[in-house]
Design goal:
There is one protein chain. It is built from 14 helices and 18 strands. By secondary structure, it is an alpha/beta fold. It has two domains: 172 residues, no CATH class; 230 residues, TIM Barrel. A five-stranded parallel sheet has the order 12-11-10-18-17. Strands 2-1-3-4 form a four-stranded parallel sheet. The longest helix is centred in the C-terminal third of the chain and has 19 residues. The radius of gyration is 24 Å and the shape is elongated. The structure holds zinc ion. The site of zinc ion has 5 residues, from loops.
Length: 454
Protein backbone atom coordinates (compact mmCIF):
# COMPACT_ATOMS: atom_id res chain seq x y z
CA UNK A 1 0.00 0.00 0.00
CA UNK A 2 1.34 3.42 -0.95
CA UNK A 3 0.58 6.33 1.33
CA UNK A 4 1.29 9.84 0.13
CA UNK A 5 1.68 12.63 2.65
CA UNK A 6 0.70 16.00 1.22
CA UNK A 7 2.60 18.53 3.28
CA UNK A 8 1.79 22.22 3.68
CA UNK A 9 4.50 24.59 2.38
CA UNK A 10 5.70 25.51 5.87
CA UNK A 11 6.55 21.90 6.80
CA UNK A 12 10.26 21.14 7.38
CA UNK A 13 10.67 18.67 4.55
CA UNK A 14 14.04 17.20 5.69
CA UNK A 15 12.56 16.36 9.07
CA UNK A 16 9.41 14.95 7.48
CA UNK A 17 11.55 12.85 5.11
CA UNK A 18 13.25 11.40 8.18
CA UNK A 19 9.89 10.40 9.65
CA UNK A 20 8.89 8.83 6.32
CA UNK A 21 12.16 6.87 6.23
CA UNK A 22 11.58 5.80 9.83
CA UNK A 23 8.03 4.62 9.12
CA UNK A 24 9.11 2.72 6.02
CA UNK A 25 11.77 0.87 8.04
CA UNK A 26 9.60 0.15 11.04
CA UNK A 27 9.15 -3.63 11.53
CA UNK A 28 5.35 -3.15 11.54
CA UNK A 29 5.47 -1.66 8.04
CA UNK A 30 5.95 -4.80 6.02
CA UNK A 31 7.29 -4.79 2.46
CA UNK A 32 3.99 -3.72 1.00
CA UNK A 33 3.81 -0.43 2.95
CA UNK A 34 5.46 2.63 1.50
CA UNK A 35 5.11 6.24 2.68
CA UNK A 36 6.00 9.02 0.26
CA UNK A 37 5.72 12.82 0.24
CA UNK A 38 3.60 14.84 -2.18
CA UNK A 39 2.99 12.01 -4.68
CA UNK A 40 -0.16 12.24 -6.75
CA UNK A 41 -0.51 8.48 -7.25
CA UNK A 42 -1.04 6.54 -4.06
CA UNK A 43 -3.61 4.32 -2.39
CA UNK A 44 -4.04 6.62 0.58
CA UNK A 45 -3.60 10.40 0.68
CA UNK A 46 -2.91 12.11 3.99
CA UNK A 47 -2.85 15.86 4.37
CA UNK A 48 -0.22 17.10 6.82
CA UNK A 49 -0.55 20.70 7.86
CA UNK A 50 -3.03 23.25 9.13
CA UNK A 51 -6.49 21.71 9.09
CA UNK A 52 -8.51 22.69 6.04
CA UNK A 53 -11.88 24.06 7.04
CA UNK A 54 -14.77 22.26 5.32
CA UNK A 55 -12.42 20.25 3.14
CA UNK A 56 -14.37 18.30 0.55
CA UNK A 57 -11.62 16.39 -1.18
CA UNK A 58 -12.84 12.83 -1.71
CA UNK A 59 -9.36 11.45 -2.42
CA UNK A 60 -8.07 12.71 0.91
CA UNK A 61 -8.14 10.01 3.55
CA UNK A 62 -7.50 12.26 6.53
CA UNK A 63 -5.63 15.25 7.89
CA UNK A 64 -2.82 15.12 10.44
CA UNK A 65 -2.69 18.60 11.94
CA UNK A 66 0.68 20.28 12.48
CA UNK A 67 1.48 21.65 15.89
CA UNK A 68 3.75 24.15 14.11
CA UNK A 69 6.71 23.32 16.30
CA UNK A 70 9.34 20.69 15.49
CA UNK A 71 8.20 19.94 11.96
CA UNK A 72 7.50 23.52 10.97
CA UNK A 73 10.16 25.52 9.13
CA UNK A 74 10.45 28.40 11.57
CA UNK A 75 12.03 28.43 15.02
CA UNK A 76 12.05 24.67 15.18
CA UNK A 77 14.42 24.24 18.10
CA UNK A 78 12.56 26.32 20.64
CA UNK A 79 12.08 24.52 23.94
CA UNK A 80 8.79 24.47 25.78
CA UNK A 81 8.61 24.38 29.53
CA UNK A 82 5.26 22.68 29.63
CA UNK A 83 4.60 19.66 27.46
CA UNK A 84 1.64 17.37 27.97
CA UNK A 85 1.06 13.71 27.21
CA UNK A 86 -2.59 13.74 26.17
CA UNK A 87 -4.35 10.43 25.80
CA UNK A 88 -5.99 9.38 22.53
CA UNK A 89 -7.95 6.18 22.01
CA UNK A 90 -7.98 3.93 19.00
CA UNK A 91 -9.98 0.71 19.28
CA UNK A 92 -8.41 -1.15 22.26
CA UNK A 93 -5.29 1.02 22.28
CA UNK A 94 -4.27 4.19 24.05
CA UNK A 95 -1.59 6.40 22.56
CA UNK A 96 -0.01 9.56 23.94
CA UNK A 97 0.90 12.83 22.29
CA UNK A 98 3.55 15.42 23.07
CA UNK A 99 1.59 18.66 23.06
CA UNK A 100 1.90 22.20 24.31
CA UNK A 101 -1.63 22.26 25.70
CA UNK A 102 -3.56 19.93 27.94
CA UNK A 103 -6.59 18.07 26.55
CA UNK A 104 -9.10 15.53 27.78
CA UNK A 105 -8.82 11.91 26.57
CA UNK A 106 -10.47 11.60 23.17
CA UNK A 107 -10.66 9.46 20.09
CA UNK A 108 -7.56 9.70 17.90
CA UNK A 109 -9.47 10.25 14.70
CA UNK A 110 -12.72 12.11 14.23
CA UNK A 111 -14.28 13.42 11.01
CA UNK A 112 -11.20 12.36 9.06
CA UNK A 113 -8.94 14.41 11.26
CA UNK A 114 -6.36 13.08 13.69
CA UNK A 115 -6.37 14.61 17.15
CA UNK A 116 -2.72 15.61 17.21
CA UNK A 117 0.54 15.86 15.29
CA UNK A 118 1.66 12.22 15.21
CA UNK A 119 4.74 12.91 13.10
CA UNK A 120 6.03 15.54 15.49
CA UNK A 121 5.54 13.27 18.52
CA UNK A 122 7.59 10.55 16.79
CA UNK A 123 10.27 13.11 15.92
CA UNK A 124 10.41 14.40 19.50
CA UNK A 125 11.04 10.95 20.99
CA UNK A 126 13.41 9.55 18.37
CA UNK A 127 15.73 12.54 18.00
CA UNK A 128 15.96 12.87 21.83
CA UNK A 129 15.05 16.52 21.27
CA UNK A 130 14.55 17.21 24.98
CA UNK A 131 18.06 15.95 25.72
CA UNK A 132 19.64 17.91 22.88
CA UNK A 133 18.18 21.20 24.13
CA UNK A 134 18.01 20.56 27.88
CA UNK A 135 18.56 23.49 30.23
CA UNK A 136 21.87 23.36 32.13
CA UNK A 137 20.10 23.27 35.50
CA UNK A 138 18.30 20.10 34.42
CA UNK A 139 21.56 18.26 33.73
CA UNK A 140 23.78 16.37 36.11
CA UNK A 141 27.57 16.79 36.33
CA UNK A 142 28.12 14.36 33.44
CA UNK A 143 25.82 16.37 31.17
CA UNK A 144 22.87 13.95 31.26
CA UNK A 145 19.36 15.34 31.32
CA UNK A 146 18.27 14.26 34.80
CA UNK A 147 15.93 11.33 34.38
CA UNK A 148 13.17 12.90 36.46
CA UNK A 149 12.97 15.58 33.77
CA UNK A 150 12.55 13.12 30.89
CA UNK A 151 9.13 13.57 29.32
CA UNK A 152 8.22 9.86 29.36
CA UNK A 153 9.32 9.41 32.98
CA UNK A 154 7.46 12.54 34.14
CA UNK A 155 4.30 11.14 32.57
CA UNK A 156 4.83 7.57 33.79
CA UNK A 157 5.05 6.29 30.20
CA UNK A 158 8.63 5.07 30.06
CA UNK A 159 7.72 1.42 30.62
CA UNK A 160 5.72 1.09 27.45
CA UNK A 161 6.95 1.46 23.86
CA UNK A 162 4.80 4.52 23.12
CA UNK A 163 6.46 5.15 19.76
CA UNK A 164 5.66 1.64 18.52
CA UNK A 165 2.08 2.06 19.73
CA UNK A 166 1.83 5.26 17.74
CA UNK A 167 3.15 3.60 14.57
CA UNK A 168 0.72 0.73 15.06
CA UNK A 169 -2.20 3.12 15.48
CA UNK A 170 -1.28 5.13 12.39
CA UNK A 171 -0.95 2.01 10.22
CA UNK A 172 -4.12 0.37 11.50
CA UNK A 173 -6.13 3.57 11.15
CA UNK A 174 -5.38 3.60 7.42
CA UNK A 175 -6.32 -0.03 7.03
CA UNK A 176 -2.98 -1.82 7.30
CA UNK A 177 -2.83 -5.07 9.23
CA UNK A 178 -0.10 -5.31 11.82
CA UNK A 179 2.04 -8.32 12.56
CA UNK A 180 3.56 -7.88 15.98
CA UNK A 181 7.16 -8.89 16.32
CA UNK A 182 9.91 -8.46 18.85
CA UNK A 183 13.26 -10.05 19.58
CA UNK A 184 15.15 -10.33 22.80
CA UNK A 185 18.79 -9.39 22.83
CA UNK A 186 21.53 -9.86 25.40
CA UNK A 187 24.40 -7.48 25.80
CA UNK A 188 27.31 -6.96 28.19
CA UNK A 189 29.65 -4.05 28.80
CA UNK A 190 33.09 -5.21 29.82
CA UNK A 191 34.19 -2.55 32.31
CA UNK A 192 36.41 -4.67 34.57
CA UNK A 193 37.63 -8.26 34.40
CA UNK A 194 38.57 -8.72 38.05
CA UNK A 195 37.33 -7.29 41.31
CA UNK A 196 40.69 -8.09 42.91
CA UNK A 197 43.28 -7.89 40.14
CA UNK A 198 46.00 -7.18 42.72
CA UNK A 199 46.62 -6.44 46.37
CA UNK A 200 46.21 -2.70 45.87
CA UNK A 201 42.69 -3.12 44.44
CA UNK A 202 41.90 -5.52 47.27
CA UNK A 203 42.89 -2.91 49.82
CA UNK A 204 40.92 -0.24 47.95
CA UNK A 205 37.76 -2.37 47.94
CA UNK A 206 38.31 -3.05 51.62
CA UNK A 207 38.78 0.65 52.49
CA UNK A 208 35.77 1.67 50.40
CA UNK A 209 33.58 -0.66 52.44
CA UNK A 210 35.26 0.36 55.68
CA UNK A 211 34.48 4.01 54.90
CA UNK A 212 30.77 3.22 54.78
CA UNK A 213 30.29 1.16 57.94
CA UNK A 214 26.50 1.43 57.98
CA UNK A 215 26.10 -0.23 54.63
CA UNK A 216 26.04 -3.87 53.81
CA UNK A 217 28.34 -5.62 52.97
CA UNK A 218 30.38 -5.35 56.12
CA UNK A 219 34.11 -4.97 56.14
CA UNK A 220 34.59 -8.52 57.34
CA UNK A 221 32.62 -9.93 54.38
CA UNK A 222 34.83 -8.07 51.91
CA UNK A 223 37.93 -9.23 53.72
CA UNK A 224 36.73 -12.84 53.72
CA UNK A 225 35.89 -12.64 50.04
CA UNK A 226 39.26 -11.14 49.21
CA UNK A 227 41.18 -13.78 51.16
CA UNK A 228 39.22 -16.62 49.54
CA UNK A 229 39.92 -15.22 46.07
CA UNK A 230 43.57 -14.73 46.96
CA UNK A 231 43.81 -18.33 48.25
CA UNK A 232 41.96 -19.50 45.13
CA UNK A 233 39.19 -21.16 47.10
CA UNK A 234 36.70 -18.83 45.38
CA UNK A 235 36.78 -17.44 41.83
CA UNK A 236 37.03 -13.66 41.54
CA UNK A 237 33.42 -12.37 41.83
CA UNK A 238 33.68 -10.58 38.45
CA UNK A 239 34.94 -13.72 36.72
CA UNK A 240 31.49 -14.88 35.64
CA UNK A 241 32.33 -15.32 31.96
CA UNK A 242 32.07 -19.09 31.79
CA UNK A 243 28.32 -19.10 32.33
CA UNK A 244 27.56 -15.47 31.41
CA UNK A 245 28.72 -15.96 27.84
CA UNK A 246 27.64 -19.56 27.38
CA UNK A 247 24.13 -18.63 26.41
CA UNK A 248 22.21 -20.43 23.67
CA UNK A 249 22.93 -19.37 20.12
CA UNK A 250 19.42 -18.27 19.22
CA UNK A 251 19.95 -14.99 21.07
CA UNK A 252 21.18 -11.86 19.42
CA UNK A 253 24.25 -11.18 21.61
CA UNK A 254 26.77 -8.39 22.00
CA UNK A 255 29.90 -7.90 24.08
CA UNK A 256 31.36 -4.39 24.26
CA UNK A 257 35.08 -4.14 24.97
CA UNK A 258 37.10 -1.11 26.09
CA UNK A 259 40.26 -0.19 24.25
CA UNK A 260 41.46 2.88 26.12
CA UNK A 261 40.54 5.63 28.55
CA UNK A 262 42.39 7.52 31.26
CA UNK A 263 39.66 8.90 33.52
CA UNK A 264 38.83 7.61 36.98
CA UNK A 265 35.85 5.78 35.49
CA UNK A 266 37.88 3.20 33.58
CA UNK A 267 41.27 1.60 33.04
CA UNK A 268 40.60 -1.75 34.74
CA UNK A 269 42.14 -3.87 31.99
CA UNK A 270 43.88 -3.51 28.67
CA UNK A 271 44.17 -5.38 25.40
CA UNK A 272 47.32 -7.23 26.46
CA UNK A 273 45.46 -9.16 29.16
CA UNK A 274 45.57 -12.96 28.80
CA UNK A 275 42.22 -13.20 30.51
CA UNK A 276 40.70 -10.90 27.89
CA UNK A 277 41.95 -13.29 25.23
CA UNK A 278 40.08 -16.11 26.94
CA UNK A 279 36.92 -14.03 27.26
CA UNK A 280 36.99 -13.05 23.59
CA UNK A 281 37.42 -16.69 22.59
CA UNK A 282 34.47 -17.77 24.74
CA UNK A 283 32.29 -14.97 23.37
CA UNK A 284 33.30 -15.68 19.80
CA UNK A 285 32.53 -19.37 20.19
CA UNK A 286 29.15 -18.53 21.65
CA UNK A 287 28.04 -16.36 18.74
CA UNK A 288 28.59 -12.92 20.24
CA UNK A 289 29.05 -9.84 18.10
CA UNK A 290 32.02 -7.94 19.51
CA UNK A 291 31.71 -4.19 19.76
CA UNK A 292 33.57 -1.18 21.10
CA UNK A 293 32.91 0.29 24.54
CA UNK A 294 34.30 3.82 23.97
CA UNK A 295 35.90 5.41 27.02
CA UNK A 296 34.23 8.13 29.10
CA UNK A 297 35.95 11.05 27.35
CA UNK A 298 35.60 9.64 23.83
CA UNK A 299 32.01 10.84 23.57
CA UNK A 300 33.11 14.21 22.15
CA UNK A 301 36.72 13.37 21.25
CA UNK A 302 37.10 12.10 17.71
CA UNK A 303 40.80 11.31 18.17
CA UNK A 304 40.17 9.09 21.17
CA UNK A 305 37.19 7.38 19.60
CA UNK A 306 39.00 6.71 16.38
CA UNK A 307 42.16 5.40 18.13
CA UNK A 308 40.16 3.10 20.39
CA UNK A 309 38.23 1.69 17.46
CA UNK A 310 41.41 1.06 15.48
CA UNK A 311 43.13 -0.55 18.49
CA UNK A 312 40.24 -2.94 19.03
CA UNK A 313 40.02 -3.75 15.33
CA UNK A 314 43.74 -4.54 15.29
CA UNK A 315 43.35 -6.70 18.38
CA UNK A 316 40.36 -8.63 17.03
CA UNK A 317 41.52 -8.54 13.43
CA UNK A 318 37.98 -7.63 12.45
CA UNK A 319 35.95 -4.59 11.52
CA UNK A 320 33.91 -3.08 14.37
CA UNK A 321 30.44 -1.84 13.52
CA UNK A 322 28.74 -1.81 16.94
CA UNK A 323 29.38 0.40 19.91
CA UNK A 324 27.99 1.41 23.30
CA UNK A 325 29.40 4.37 25.24
CA UNK A 326 30.96 3.58 28.63
CA UNK A 327 28.84 5.15 31.40
CA UNK A 328 26.32 5.77 28.60
CA UNK A 329 28.27 9.00 28.22
CA UNK A 330 26.57 10.46 25.18
CA UNK A 331 25.90 13.88 23.74
CA UNK A 332 22.86 13.69 21.50
CA UNK A 333 24.11 16.44 19.18
CA UNK A 334 27.78 15.41 19.02
CA UNK A 335 28.36 11.71 19.73
CA UNK A 336 26.31 10.26 16.85
CA UNK A 337 28.25 12.45 14.37
CA UNK A 338 31.55 11.11 15.73
CA UNK A 339 30.34 7.52 15.66
CA UNK A 340 29.20 7.91 12.06
CA UNK A 341 32.51 9.52 11.14
CA UNK A 342 34.63 6.63 12.46
CA UNK A 343 32.44 4.07 10.70
CA UNK A 344 30.23 2.72 13.46
CA UNK A 345 26.89 1.51 12.04
CA UNK A 346 24.99 0.73 15.24
CA UNK A 347 25.08 2.60 18.52
CA UNK A 348 23.59 0.78 21.53
CA UNK A 349 23.68 3.54 24.16
CA UNK A 350 20.09 4.77 24.36
CA UNK A 351 18.58 3.41 27.56
CA UNK A 352 18.13 4.77 31.07
CA UNK A 353 20.84 4.99 33.72
CA UNK A 354 18.52 4.54 36.69
CA UNK A 355 15.21 3.31 35.31
CA UNK A 356 13.89 0.37 33.36
CA UNK A 357 12.09 1.34 30.19
CA UNK A 358 12.26 2.80 26.71
CA UNK A 359 14.19 6.06 26.62
CA UNK A 360 13.17 6.89 23.05
CA UNK A 361 9.80 5.14 23.27
CA UNK A 362 10.81 2.07 21.31
CA UNK A 363 12.80 -1.15 21.61
CA UNK A 364 13.31 -1.45 17.84
CA UNK A 365 16.35 -0.14 15.98
CA UNK A 366 15.94 3.17 14.18
CA UNK A 367 18.09 5.59 12.18
CA UNK A 368 19.57 8.66 13.90
CA UNK A 369 18.58 12.16 12.88
CA UNK A 370 21.06 14.85 13.81
CA UNK A 371 19.44 18.13 14.84
CA UNK A 372 22.66 20.14 14.46
CA UNK A 373 23.38 19.15 10.87
CA UNK A 374 19.70 18.59 10.03
CA UNK A 375 20.23 15.24 8.33
CA UNK A 376 19.61 11.54 8.74
CA UNK A 377 22.86 9.83 9.68
CA UNK A 378 24.43 6.66 8.45
CA UNK A 379 24.07 5.39 11.99
CA UNK A 380 21.33 3.37 13.62
CA UNK A 381 20.37 3.17 17.24
CA UNK A 382 19.70 -0.18 18.84
CA UNK A 383 18.24 0.90 22.21
CA UNK A 384 18.23 -1.17 25.38
CA UNK A 385 15.38 -1.37 27.88
CA UNK A 386 16.93 -2.94 30.94
CA UNK A 387 20.37 -2.44 32.44
CA UNK A 388 21.22 -4.42 35.59
CA UNK A 389 22.51 -1.39 37.52
CA UNK A 390 19.43 0.64 36.56
CA UNK A 391 17.13 -2.07 37.90
CA UNK A 392 19.02 -2.11 41.19
CA UNK A 393 19.05 1.68 41.34
CA UNK A 394 15.31 1.99 40.68
CA UNK A 395 14.37 -0.63 43.27
CA UNK A 396 17.18 0.12 45.75
CA UNK A 397 17.94 -3.59 45.40
CA UNK A 398 14.57 -4.69 46.83
CA UNK A 399 14.33 -8.29 45.61
CA UNK A 400 10.56 -8.58 45.06
CA UNK A 401 10.37 -5.25 43.32
CA UNK A 402 13.22 -6.20 40.98
CA UNK A 403 11.38 -9.33 39.83
CA UNK A 404 8.09 -7.44 39.59
CA UNK A 405 9.50 -4.79 37.29
CA UNK A 406 11.10 -7.30 34.94
CA UNK A 407 7.86 -9.25 34.78
CA UNK A 408 5.77 -6.11 34.35
CA UNK A 409 7.79 -4.90 31.36
CA UNK A 410 8.03 -8.29 29.66
CA UNK A 411 4.31 -8.98 30.12
CA UNK A 412 3.31 -5.49 28.95
CA UNK A 413 5.31 -5.52 25.77
CA UNK A 414 4.78 -9.19 24.93
CA UNK A 415 6.15 -9.52 21.43
CA UNK A 416 5.35 -5.95 20.45
CA UNK A 417 8.87 -4.58 20.37
CA UNK A 418 12.49 -5.62 20.77
CA UNK A 419 13.81 -5.97 24.30
CA UNK A 420 17.51 -5.64 25.01
CA UNK A 421 19.09 -6.48 28.34
CA UNK A 422 22.43 -5.10 29.47
CA UNK A 423 24.19 -7.20 32.10
CA UNK A 424 27.70 -6.48 33.38
CA UNK A 425 29.86 -9.43 34.41
CA UNK A 426 30.55 -7.52 37.64
CA UNK A 427 26.93 -7.09 38.74
CA UNK A 428 26.43 -10.60 40.10
CA UNK A 429 28.93 -10.16 42.93
CA UNK A 430 27.06 -11.55 45.99
CA UNK A 431 28.36 -8.62 48.03
CA UNK A 432 26.88 -6.07 45.66
CA UNK A 433 23.42 -4.69 46.27
CA UNK A 434 20.97 -6.78 44.21
CA UNK A 435 23.73 -9.14 42.98
CA UNK A 436 22.08 -12.46 43.93
CA UNK A 437 18.70 -11.33 42.50
CA UNK A 438 20.28 -10.29 39.21
CA UNK A 439 21.72 -13.77 38.94
CA UNK A 440 18.22 -15.28 39.31
CA UNK A 441 16.78 -12.83 36.78
CA UNK A 442 19.53 -13.63 34.29
CA UNK A 443 19.01 -17.38 34.63
CA UNK A 444 15.27 -17.00 34.33
CA UNK A 445 15.59 -14.88 31.24
CA UNK A 446 17.79 -17.46 29.52
CA UNK A 447 15.43 -20.29 30.46
CA UNK A 448 12.29 -18.44 29.37
CA UNK A 449 13.73 -17.55 26.03
CA UNK A 450 14.82 -21.12 25.46
CA UNK A 451 11.43 -22.46 26.49
CA UNK A 452 9.49 -20.06 24.28
CA UNK A 453 11.40 -21.39 21.29
CA UNK A 454 10.96 -25.06 22.03
ZN1 LIG B 1 30.93 0.68 30.84
Amino acid sequence: MRISIHADPNIHITRLEYIVLYLNHHPYAQNNVSFTINQQTADVHLHYGNPIVNAENPSLHATIPTQNWLLAESDTNQSFWALYANQYDFEEMQVYSVETSKKRPQSIIENNKYGFDLFETLFFHLTRFEEAYAQKDQQDRHGYLLEDHHFLIRHGLHRSPVVDHLVETLLRSIGINIHHCGQRTLSHDLDAIWKYPNLLKGIKAFLKTAAAPTRDPTVSKVLQQYLKVKNKTLPDPYDTFDWLLSTPNHFDKYLFIMAGGQTKYEGHYNLTSNKLNEIVKTADGSGYTLGLHPSYAAYTDIEKLSTEKKELEKYLNAEIRDSRQHWLHFDVLETPLLLEHVGISFDHTIGYQNKVGFRSGTGFSYPWYNLKEERTLNLWEKPFALMDTALVSETKGHADRMHEIVREVIDTIGKKTDFTFNFHNSSFDPLRLGGPELLKIYEQFIKEKTRSLS
